[in-house]
Amino acid sequence: MKKILFASTALVATAGVAAAELTIGGSARFGLAYNEAETNETRIEQRMRVNITGIAETDAGVKLEARFRLEANEDDHENSISGKGPGAAGFAVSFGGLRVDVGNVSNVLDSGDQVDYYGYGIGFTSFLEANSNFNGPATGFGAGSADATTIKARYTVGDFSASLSYKETRAQARTATTLWSAATGGTSTVVYNDDAVAADEEYQLGLGYTLANGMSLGAVYSDSDIAGDYWVIGLNGTAGAIGYTVMVGDGDNQQDTSISASMNYEVSSATSIRALVADGGMTGADTAYGIGFRHGLGGGVTLAGGVGSDSSSNTKADLGVSFSF
């Protein structure tokens, strides 16, 4: 990550600000991805993300941050932001053990503050993750639009931490567009865009504790008008060369209790093997499982790949490289 430090008082004009900093960094990946459920089963996978973060700190030690993300994907792959400019910004204020985020930010579950919701993903795209059979409301990075407001607070003291998030989504009506065509004799056609969004309020509370043996135990409870109640409990840690996550969750929006486990085994300082299994969840969901590898090539470059089956029994696989800058 490259950092540009603005020390000039001409650029740092706010009274009482001790220092300001702009960081630019990101990640990229490309390779082959396979999904038997898609029309074009094998495709070129590519993605580039650039994160731009402005940081300032007052003389009293209060740290302020503002960040937005640029992202581009391959044109033929389904995504909503490829080729577009940055989305809404996310802001944060932190002092001591307290941090408050607002705007285009994650809620408690998505942020991983208390529970490692995604575990050790398979493949260089993480096409399978520990939450594969979970239906928890993990929303973030996209929630900071004009129709939604997200705020999250986290407080840490010693080995204990607590997080609270609130998200309000305002109702957005179905829109209609009138199209006029000379080719059809000047007739007009009304086209409806099915982008209606229902109003919703969501609260999430998370608690976490780091145990003496290196394990971390956490829990998240969520309540929203649309999804209803949802809870997740997770345990993660390391034992020698093995890293692991175990998670269980259930809620009003799924039929069965979900359970998953993921593992990362360090074969050497550069190579690791990953595996995961997830079961339960929505009605008719099948057991998701996969195995993969990661190998560091140096300079922040990683070669990775994997193969597995998702909760719809579709075979997925990928192979490619990722790197950070």
UniProtKB/TrEMBL annotation:
Residues 7-314 form the Porin domain. It comes from the Bacteria. Keywords: Signal. The keyword Signal applies. Gene3D superfamilies: Porin. Residues 1-19 form the signal peptide. Pfam families: Porin_4. The keyword Nucleus does not apply. SUPFAM superfamilies: Porins. This is Porin.
